[in-house]
Amino acid sequence: MASEQLEATIAMMREINVISGEIDADRAAIPIGTPMPDGIAHEMVRVGECTGAWITDGVRPDAALLYLHGGGYVLGGLGTHGALGARLSADTGLAVLVLDYRLGPEHKHPAALEDALAAMTWLSEQGIPAGRVVIAGDSAGGGLTLATLAALRDRGQRAAAGVALSPWADLTCTNATYESVGDDDPLVGRHNLLQYAAAYAGDTPLEDPRLSPGLGDLADLPPVLVQVGGVEVLLDDSLHVTAGIEAAGGEVTLQRWDEGIHVFQMFDTPESADAIGGIVDFVAEQLGS
């Protein structure tokens, strides 16, 4: 049963209804390129072709977390996800780089993937090699997390682990929960996601595993934690990714909250606290305390 706080959050999101699928309108409701929220100690850094917020207040020096925000590859940034990055830093004790990667349609694929890989290079230049970096992200950032893990593998590198929150892992948007969940998801739907996919993909087929890592080779990835809500159209993306990693002989943990909506971890609810606790435990297990 959903907590009172989660039920109130769902009702609020239905009333606000900020996602239309029209990119200009959605950007007006959810601005891109916004600064970090007030009160979060950080340093703005240049990372290749983009920027990021480097959160290092009171953290251990031997490991880091790279956070890749959601927003369908066309929305979001430090203003929408900086607070979540700061919370993860405080709770895990890790330095966190919240990457403000380039967005479509101005910057089409593979811009976001290139930026994520550049961030791994930047972290190595700070003395934190790939094997001590956890890559995490939500929604599009969750799919980008999986694509980055696979790209590193293909380069002969390996991150410490991956954390994918409600990953958008199949940009064809053909999984069954797009229909079965439908309007029960107050945040995303097939219509707006297809608009976003076309805006970012450009001439790249949506089936390309660099865009849709759930359709690609999921072998030889580091351990992955997948968290998902039961009331979201991307539920099947998470289930299919989990099954694919398992079938490839990999190590994957699926955590599901049946009453959870899309990326419920961003909201102040008991379910979010429980999920963040799961991330903290997973990260500690992979990196050592």
Notable characteristics:
9 helices; alpha/beta; 289 residues; Rossmann fold; 16% strand
Fold and architecture overview:
It is a single chain. The chain is of the alpha/beta class. It has a single domain (4-287), classed as Alpha/Beta hydrolase fold, catalytic domain (Rossmann fold), CATH 3.40.50.1820. The protein has helices at 4-16, 23-29, 78-92, 111-125, 140-154, 177-180, 190-201, 235-247, 270-287, and strands at 43-47, 50-55, 64-68, 95-100, 133-138, 161-165, 224-229, 252-257. The protein has an eight-stranded mixed sheet with strand order 1-2-4-3-5-6-7-8, sandwiched between helices. Helix 8 (235-247) links the parallel strand 7 (224-229) and strand 8. Helix 4 (111-125) packs across helix 5 (140-154). It is globular and about 45 Å long. It starts with a helix and ends with a helix.
- From the 3D structure, determine the CATH topology: Rossmann fold
Order of helices and strands: HHEEEHEHEHEHHEHEH
Distance between the termini: 33 Å
Percent in strands: 15-25%
Question: Biggest β-sheet: count, sense, barrel?
Answer: 8 strands, mixed
Q: Uncertain spans, ≥5 residues at pLDDT below 50?
A: none
Q: Report the total helices.
A: 9
Can you tell me the overall shape? globular
